[in-house]
Amino acid sequence: DGGITQSPKYLFRKEGQNVTLSCEQNLNHDAMYWYRQDPGQGLRLIYYSQIVNDFQKGDIAEGYSVSREKKESFPLTVTSAQKNPTAFYLCASSAIDRVDYGYTFGSGTRLTVV
Amino acid sequence: QQPVQSPQAVILREGEDAVINCSSSKALYSVHWYRQKHGEAPVFLMILLKGGEQKGHEKISASFNEKKQQSSLYLTASQLSYSGTYFCGTQGALFVSGNTGKLIFGQGTTLQVKP
Fold it and tell me: Which residues, 6+ apart, have CB-to-CB distance to B63 below 8 Å?
């Protein structure tokens, strides 16, 4: 079955460390997205990408970086510049040539600073 | 330009109805609705497109008022399984070349259905 796989499910980061969250999809979707969710809050857009080797900043991109070297993969790096990284991170994808399709989300990565 | 959802929380008994509203200050091309169970990923419910009709399946339906940039989600004869947090996601103008754009999500409405 097609879907989005995020790993790891739980991640612990020490102060000053960079960590990378993985997101892989086999849906053949062109567009991929990273959202951050804080407790009791909505989803805020970090970065998004429509095509390989191209991506745009979302509303809260500071302290994060991404790459899109393959259509299937869109990893997110949380850098030491992100001062409050503890959150639930969700990756999503969509078929940009189908205006009546919604997003498919991965199961998320819960990041905690220790 | 995050859309505003109301109410923030709803508590229902099984069989009761609920309406969740989503309002934007910007012109919209489409509105998505998702449901998220605690600790899980959001699940797509439906999408309403500019110029489209009210959509729905089973006892969950939605409408889209383009002039007011508002959408409403209707849950009728609620079941225990309807519990969760409901998010609307809005899309403004499409990307160049007609492809779909990014979604901006509201803050969510928590729905609790009790036996």
Answer: B48, B54, B71, B72, B74
CA separation for the pair B65, A44 (Å, rounded): 24
d(CA B46, CA A15): 41
CA torsion B10-A34-A31-B88 (nearest 10°) is 10
Question: Which of A94, A99, A106 is closest, CB to CB, to B49?
Answer: A99
pLDDT tens by residue, B20-72: 999 998 878 889 999 999 889 999 999 888 776 666 677 899 999 888 889 99
Contacts of A104 in chain B (CB under 8 A): 44
More confident residue, B4 or A96: B4
Does pLDDT of B81 surpass 80? yes
pLDDT 10s digits, A38-58: 987 889 999 999 999 999 999
Of A30, A96, A105, the CB nearest to B41: A105
Cα of B50 to nearest chain A Cα, Å: 11
Question: What is the dihedral sign for C-alpha A59, A64, A68, A71?
Answer: negative
In the predicted structure, residue B94 carries a pLDDT above the cut 80: no
Read off the pLDDT of each residue in A81-91 and give the average, rounded to a whole number: 93
A107 CB burial (10 A radius; 0-12, 13-18, 19+)? middle
